[in-house]
Amino acid sequence: MTDRPERDNPLAEGTFGPLETWLAATLGAGRVEIARAEKLSGGAVQENWRIDALVEGGRHEGAQRWVLRTDAQASLAVSLDRTSEFGVLSAAHEAGIKVAEPIARCESAELTGAPFMLQTYQPGEAQARRLTRDPGLAEWGPVVARELGRELARIHQIRAGHPDLGFLPQAITSPAKAEIARLRAALDKAGEARPTLEYVLVWLEDNDPGSEDVVLVHGDYRTGNYLVSDGHLSAILDWEFAHWGDAREDLGWFCAKCWRFGNADLEAGGIARRASLLDGYRSIAGNRIDESELAYWEILAAAKWAAVAVLQGDRYRLGGELSIELALTGLMVSELELEALDGIAALEETNAAQ
Questions:
Q1: Domain 125-169+214-289: CATH superfamily, name plus number
Q2: Count of CB atoms situated within 10 Å of the CB of 287
């Protein structure tokens, strides 16, 4: 976890002048006027601000609605900075993946108190519990799950060695072991030891399935990080955990029990059965991933979310951030550890029966 000094409201009304000047110069516009800046809900790791602006001249001339994305008061060491996230978003956009168009990035903290990136505002619903409790879920859920599977397969077509993604570290070991090492490094900064979680990480390391292919992994592909509009997928959000890894990691993360939001029988993110997601994925990627392969990666997903929850809880307990969301996230760790242990027991039972 990385702490930054307290800062005032970075986009308070009446303080837009420097940002407007920077935007005009960056976008090649004669003038940019910000009419409104509103902080969006969610984003415990990043802050997202909706920006309504009028642009005079240049490629973006006219009324514009953007999202300015900057770090929250404390960021997680396992997440990308905004400059790197902008690079990943740009590569995804160029590949034709459904993402918000990247507009600009600023590496300086002078304008808003922290580096930031700017992207187009996309309409739709992202709030996970609203989606998973929508009365029309049975109708649109399988449709969106298949669309999500297709988009994920397109993400995974971006391979290591991509000329614009050289800033992403290359793993020198298997993707699973690299992810486990990242989690261990993050937990080393935690306020207290988690023996159960350490046991799970040891089990994951000992049972590493290996990988023959390294692809771009979104790293947080789940319900809550995509937008649904009129019963269809409109955009994939939040690329701050992107890295090179195993394609099954994203599929396992999406299907993990912790991201079903109470709809346990709808394995694909609480919106559809796992088969719908995989049908969409295989329509682009072929039949190279079997449903049975995902059990290991769902256990890794529970461990990863548990590690993140430890750090988020520390932001409340030790960092002094008075956030109910952070406090409640910290209380989820034991539940996630139990979920991982249940997954290990079930997988070992299945393997013993074969």
A1: Transferase(Phosphotransferase) domain 1 (1.10.510.10)
A2: 8
- The neighbouring-strand residues paired with 117 are 69, 105
> pLDDT 10s per residue in the chain (354 long)?
454 444 456 687 768 999 999 999 999 999 999 999 998 876 556 789 999 999 999 999 999 999 999 876 555 556 788 889 999 999 999 999 999 999 999 998 888 888 999 999 999 999 999 999 999 999 999 999 999 999 999 999 999 889 999 999 987 889 999 999 999 998 998 888 899 999 999 999 999 999 878 999 999 999 999 999 999 999 999 999 999 999 999 999 999 999 999 999 999 999 999 999 999 999 999 977 888 899 999 999 999 999 999 998 998 888 878 888 889 999 999 999 999 999 999 999 998 987
* 187 Cβ neighbours under 8 A, 6+ residues apart: 194, 197, 198, 307, 310
What DSSP letter does each residue of 96-127 carry, written as one string?
T-S-PPEEEEE--STTTSS-EEEEE---SB--
Amino acid (1-letter code) at residue 69: R
Q: Where are the domains of the chain?
A: 2-120, 125-169+214-289, 172-213+291-354
- Residue 144: closest CA among 286, 272, 316, 246: 272
Residues contacting 348, CB < 8 A, separation 6+: none
* C-beta of residue 167 within 8 angstroms of C-beta of residue 84: yes
Q: Which CATH architecture has domain 2-120?
A: 2-Layer Sandwich (3.30)
CA distances (Å), 20 to each of 14, 15, 337, in order?
A: 11, 9, 47
